[in-house]
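A quick aside before the break. I want you to see a complete sequence-to-structure record at least once, exactly as it would be stored in a machine-readable document. Don't worry about memorizing anything.
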Amino acid sequence: MGCSDGSRPPKILVIGHGRHGKDTAGALIAEATGQRWVSSSEFCAQKAVFPLVSDIYPDWRACFEDRGNHRDLWFHAIAAYNCRPGPTLTEQILAEHGLYIGMRGRAEFEATRHLFDVVVWVDASERLPAEAGSSMELTAEDADLVLDNNRDLAHLRRQVADLFG
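That is the input. The structure line, written in tokens, reads:
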């Protein structure tokens, strides 16, 4: 799957609930398309979240490792980061990567949807619950494609190869 004019590789957004396999799917898509990717959580830990909580954590990696315990904080820190002057989080990620993995906010999605050629939802809802009280504002309906991540890695790999190989 490529850009409609074929002049550049597609810009791809991978979304889904926490722990449903977005990073795994993103890595497989990156491999299939030959593109670089980054987990937005790792990128945000360095740029948006750690600067706000640097008195609590020794470094951005520790902040990143604890992200599951503070999803609301992360959500609001990223929203605030996108309100500051300068390039948005999405623009910064896409400047060096073909894939953005893990967007959660509706405002960010609406403001940057035009930058992506395809949006992929990763679904593991048959084996994992959706996030309760989640800051996840996006749904499968926001995506162009849905990857079924309810089986094994080989199944996910075949889907990615069929769509992006």
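Two observations worth writing down. The mean pLDDT is 90. The beta strands are 12-15, 37-39, 99-101, 118-123, 145-148. We'll return to this after the break.
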